[in-house]
Specification:
This protein has 756 residues and is mostly beta strands. It has two helices and 55 strands. The strands form 15 sheets. The chain has a five-stranded mixed beta sheet with strand order 26-27-32-31-29, with no helix packed on it. A four-stranded antiparallel beta sheet has the order 3-2-5-6, with no helix packed on it. Strands 10-9-12-13 form a four-stranded antiparallel beta sheet, with no helix packed on it. The longest helix is centred in the last third of the chain and has 31 residues.
């Protein structure tokens, strides 16, 4: 049997683990996933154990019963915190808690048998004159067990119902005393013990009937709510009588009553009746009471003798004793000294009680003279006690106090200065001139300052936007000049005193030289970091700097043998340009004589000039003979810019050093700028035999200052020598004609002669 059970347990455990793994893979958000919980009961008889769980966030409850092997399961559980109770007749109940899904798989639960004996107890229930039939009687042992109720030890519970004789009989009990709780319809719940087995019930009447109607926050009436009452006067619990959407309660006259209303889909609500004086009607809105924000209902006192059945009376919520409020005071504007708050006399101190807490809400505050959560007060010299009393919505109070010590005496502050060259140097006292910037370490010592209760803090301002704290500090000044060093000593009360010393720092750092340059173009715009031939170049050394922040001197050398210039901004015009440019040198000096030199090589740009060129050269006869007249045509074009001056176009034979064979004049005003424009010029030449290079040059006299002087073009022409072969041909033809004529005449004459 054990092996079989163990096998089943193992199979269930494997199934549980696989289910848990699968669920983990299916969702990264475990709180939103449905979870299956499988557990086991270990006892002599693990079957038939009632397992009840309550979701602490929603109040929803679920129950199941363990199988023969002690296994039980819950499916589709939402992630969250759960309260769990295991109970079975004859066994001590067990209270547990689950955190789903992190507690999966569930650990096993052991249950111990309840004490048993041979005693029989008979409880008689009556109303003082007649026996009460059908009353439910609960016996709770003195043996402690877990309870639904916080801080209340209940023990295991057995129950039974009275018969017509008003008796409920319980067998198999120990000789211990048992707490007794009796509930019967139409009667107030009665509490007692087995020391007195006669229980008298008080019949409920309508003298103080309290009518309760339950609504949700939207104003809808709820007819399926759970409503009950706690009578603090008698420490009694009463279930409401439900009729439709109305619930009736019957407290005693003058009772302090708490009415509890629950609904499965809403947070619970609590209504307090300070003193019952007769019938009354109450509207309770579930989900509107701050005392139930954590899903737990609080009461001021537990019912006497435990007053608890197997399941909580609410059915779906935890009930705890109200621990009462906790008063807490937060103080600002003071210093904590040995548990006391020290402040300068006359200074305002701010107190706040907002950190006070209450599980039931409804906190009110009392400072004696103020009822707000925050409070301010100024104090004369001496010791003072400030007390805050807070009261919660159930009327319970708590107090907290703080001690305020007002101090009216300020410190006497002073300090010395020692100058060191390094950390190992013993140093020498500051003498007014032995501190160098970026080098000297000055040690300031304020430890000789005094106060009647002791100095709490030292703060330093070195006059150069740097600060420090402590009684002994060191500082290296980065900038020269006079620096006012200020030390403020403050005691625990906030009283302070200030001491000053002026430290003169020597300037030993060279300035930093820098400059830029520019010129103004033809449109009036500034061209940065550039220069132009014949135009003033503007130099600006405003980018130079010095840590002394004092006046600087500027010396300019423009690298063209011109006179030097002075001033932060100067202008200079460059002439006689060279390919190497000009090295412009700036020397900057501060008041202490420290210098820095910087130089830039500047190459001014040439001004824009026109560019005249020959685009085309052609001949009227490309194969002339010696002595022929040839027209030489040239096309002149202009780039760069327009011109107004006239210039010559010269034609040379066999190069620019050869014979000039013609000159044409061009009016510059008639030559339009652009590659698409041009002017044609021509000269005539009587050809000479041979192969020649015809060379044409525009602006041969250099009248125009051009950007480029590549304004020539040449072309080869071949001229043949003089030829008389045509005269010989003519003579031969004449002779042939004469001979032909003579022959013809002779032929005619022969024919005439012989014909005779």
């Amino acid at each position: 049997m054990t092996e079989k059970r163990n096998s089943r347990i193992a199979l269930l455990a494997v199934a549980m683990l696989l289910s848990g793994a699968l669920l983990g893979l299916m969702s990264e958000d475990s709180s939103a996933a449905d979870n299956n919980a499988v557990g086991f009961i270990s006892s002599a008889d693990p079957s038939g154990v009632d397992v009840t769980i309550i979701n602490q966030a929603t109040g929803e409850s679920s129950s199941t019963t363990s199988a023969d092997d002690g296994s039980y399961s819950f499916t589709d559980l939402a992630g969250g915190e759960y309260s769990v109770r295991y109970s079975k007749a004859g066994y001590l109940s067990v209270l547990d808690s689950w955190s789903i899904p992190s507690d999966l798989p569930l650990a096993g639960v052991s249950m111990d048998a309840a004490p048993s004996g041979s005693e029989t107890v008979t409880i008689n229930v009556n109303d003082g004159s007649e026996n009460v039939d059908g009353a439910t009687v609960y016996l709770m042992s003195s043996t402690e067990e877990d309870s639904w109720w916080a801080d209340v030890a209940v023990g295991y519970t057995v129950s039974g119902n009275t018969g017509a004789d008003g008796n409920a009989i319980f067998a198999g009990l120990t000789a211990d005393s048992y707490a007794v709780r009796v509930e019967a319809e139409g009667f107030a719940t009665a509490l007692g013990s087995t020391d007195d087995t006669n229980i008298v019930l008080t019949a409920l009447d309508d003298t103080n009937k309290q009518t309760v109607r339950v609504y949700d926050t939207a104003g809808n009436p709820l007819g399926d709510a759970t409503v009950f009452m706690y009578d603090a006067t008698t420490s009694s619990w009463y279930d409401a009588t439900k009729v439709g959407y109305t619930y009736y309660l019957h407290p005693s006259t003058g009772a302090e009553v708490y009415v509890y209303a629950y609904h499965g889909s809403h947070e619970p609500s609590v209504a307090k009746i300070s003193s019952v004086a007769g019938p009354d009607t109450h509207d309770v809105v579930v989900g509107s009471n701050s005392a139930a924000d954590d899903g737990i209902i609080y009461i001021n006192a537990a019912p006497s003798n435990g007053g608890q059945s197997m399941a909580p009376m609410s059915g779906d919520r935890m009930i705890k004793l109200n621990p009462g409020p906790s008063a807490s005071i937060d103080v600002t504007g003071t210093t904590d000294v040995d548990g006391s708050h020290v402040v300068a006399a006359g200074s305002s101190v701010n107190f706040s009680g907002s950190s006070s807490s209450s599980v039931v809400g409804g906190i009110t505050y009392s400072w004696g003279s103020s009822s707000s959560s925050d409070y301010s007060e100024s104090f004369e010299a001496g010791e003072h006690t400030v007390t805050l009393t807070v009261t919660d919505g159930f009327g319970q109070s708590n107090a907290a106090s703080v001690t305020i010590v007002a101090d009216g005496t300020a410190p006497d502050s002073t300090f010395t200065a020692t100058v060191k060259s390094n950390t190992d140097d013993t140093g020498s006292a500051y003498n007014g001139s032995n501190v160098d910037e970026d080098y000297s370490m000055v040690v300031f010592n304020a430890s000789s300052s005094t106060d009647d209760v002791g100095i709490d803090s030292y703060s330093w301002n070195f006059g150069d936007e740097s600060t420090d704290t402590g009684d002994v500090v060191s500082h290296i000044f980065e900038n020269p000049g006079d620096h006012v060093v200020t030390m403020t000593a403050t005691d625990a009360a906030g009283n302070s005193d200030t001491h000053e010393m002026t430290v003169s720092v020597n300037d030993v750092t060279n300035p930093s030289a820098e400059f830029n340059w520019s010129y103004t173009n033809e449109t009036g715009g500034m061209v940065s970091n550039a220069a132009m031939e014949g135009e003033p170049t503007h130099f600006d050394a405003g980018g130079s700097s010095d840590n002394s922040n004092g006046a600087l001197t500027y010396l300019w050398d423009f690298g063209d043998a011109s006179n030097v210039s002075t001033g932060q901004t100067v202008s200079h015009t460059f002439g006689n340009l060279t390919d190497e440019g000009f090295n412009v040198v700036l020397t900057v000096a501060d008041a202490a004589g420290n210098e820095d030199v910087i130089s830039y090589n500047i190459k001014p740009a040439l001004k824009e000039r026109p560019d005249i060129f020959i685009s085309e050269l052609s001949f009227s006869d490309n194969n002339p003979a010696e002595g022929d007249t040839v027209t030489l045509d040239a096309t002149v074009k202009l780039l760069g810019m327009n011109i107004t001056e006239a210039f010559n176009v010269a034609f040379y034979l066999d190069g620019p050093e050869g014979t000039q064979i013609g000159v044409a004049s061009v009016d510059g005003a008639n030559l339009s700028f652009g590659i698409e424009h041009g002017v044609n010029v021509s000269v005539t030449w009587k050809a000479t035999a041979g192969t020649h290079s015809i060379y044409v040059m525009a602006d041969s006299l250099n009248i125009i200052d051009e950007s480029e002087e590549k304004n020539e073009l040449s072309k080869i022409i071949t001229v043949s020598a003089e030829d008389d072969s045509s005269d010989v041909t003519s003579m031969v033809m004449i002779i042939a004609v004469v001979l032909l004529s003579v022959g013809s005449v002779g032929y005619i004459y022969r024919d005439s002669l012989f014909s005779k």
